[in-house]
Amino acid sequence: MGEHCVRDELRTLFLFEKLSDEQLDVLCQAGSIERFPEGPLCTEGEPATCFYVMLEGELVMTKRSGGVDIQTGRTSQRGVYCGAWSAYVPGEEHTYQASVRLTKPSKFFVLDADAFAAFMRSEFPMAVHLLEGHMVGGRRQSQIIGQREKLLALGTITAGLTHQLNNPAAATARATSDLRETVGKMRHKLAMLAGGKFTPEALSVLVSIQEEVAEQVAKSKSVELSALEASDREDAIGDWLESHDIIGAWDYAPTFVDAGLDTDWLERILASVDEVDATASLQGALGWLKYTIDTELRMNEIAEASKRISALLTDAKHYSQMDRGAYQSANVHELLRSTIMMFGDKIGHQGKGRPITLVKETDQTLPELVCYPGDLNQVWTNLIENAIQAMDGHGTLTIRTARENEDMIRVEICDDGPGIPQDIIERIFTPFFTTKPFGEGTGLGLDLAWRIVVEKHHGNMSVRSQPGDTRFIVTLPLQAPAPITPTPGELAAAGTE
Questions:
Q1: What pTM did the predictor assign?
Q2: Helix runs in 12-108, H state only
Q3: In DSSP terms, which residues pair with 358 in a beta bridge?
Q4: Tens of pLDDT along 19-46?
Q5: Going by C-beta distance under 8 Å and a sequence separation of 6 or more, which residues neighbour residue 32?
Q6: In a 10 Å sphere around its CB, with 0-12 CB exposed, 13-18 middle and 19+ buried, how is residue 243 labelled?
Q7: What is the mean pLDDT of the chain?
Q8: How far, in Å, CA of 458 to CA of 35, rounded?
Q9: Maximum separation of any 2 CA atoms in the chain, in Å
Q10: Distances (CA, A) of 411 to 270, 407, 483
Q11: Angle at 121 between CA 118 and CA 127, to 5 degrees
């Protein structure tokens, strides 16, 4: 049983000092003075049942982040309040927003949450409307602008994907046009060969060689020549063709090099044709084979372009998680890879001549996460986009992954840009805070990332920055909290809204 509440004692607290005697009497009748031992007073996430105002003692307030409790305040000031402070907002599921632990025996004025809510609504109706509007309106504004942030990111990603799809699509169209022209020339050449320039035996040998050449073209894809090697082989083939009086020798040479042929192949072709028909034209045989090679190379280009388009669409689907549930097991490296792919030509590996050089330092032994993959891709998108902008499109993007402890992993997105000024680094996760010019940023990209990592996944997010080295560090649990399944009553209520 609590101690009797005295109006004059409540009036000494800054929270109640302006209240009338009648209002203080209402509070005293509804509440009580309670003494609590050292230890927990209320726990974050549990139903908020009481509103507490400290009369004497000391408390420590903490918030859960990344699986650990982060201390946000420690005080012994009389009048400090905690607990169900927002109980007056209707239609909300009220839970304690932070954990409070007492460091020594303490005394509080305790008010039941419902009584606190009723007092606020009856005694301060205008204040309640203002506070409710501020809380609910702010939340809705964050949601609306958060959706806009996602749409802006989607626009950037779509533009990059469109550009990437355009390249293989254009290559396919170009190769198809070339293939149509080559097939037409092949039909003409075949008619000439069959018209008497080659005996049936010579044509049979030529068809056999044609099949071998087609197989060689397929093999040549796995053998890459250096620029110097390709140039030397092209010179050797050109010289051989010229020495055998082949018209257009230097037009043929690059095609034969692309097919993986060399002068030994040409000697075999010459020997095979001479063996069955000494009068047959080497020019005609090589012309026929060139058209064969051109056809195979164009078909290879179409196949490669089609594979590229398929891979891009697969990556885009993986990025958007269209074919998966919201809460799934996922490989963090696959999520990062699909996100990087969406930035297209902005990012490339070392030596590829891209504006942003990509360096990966990853631990491939990391286990899969049970998480919200689509949301994490939004986090990677925001962080990578910010890094690209910080480097003004030129620099090195470094992505690191590692095991943090037994049940956490660590992901770092790093850039070598100018860094974040120390006077604002504490505010970068604050909603609507942005360093971009007016109209170019909403200030919600990092806030959205923070809420996905910390609130939805129960991980942690931090930043370290100095000129030339800025690191956004994300730690994630191996298993994020599963989504809460609504009760039948909640589903019925949602259906009536």
A1: 0.44
A2: 21-30
A3: 349, 397
A4: 899 999 999 999 999 999 999 999 988 8
A5: 2, 3, 4, 5, 109, 110
A6: exposed
A7: 76
A8: 33
A9: 124
A10: 61, 14, 23
A11: 145
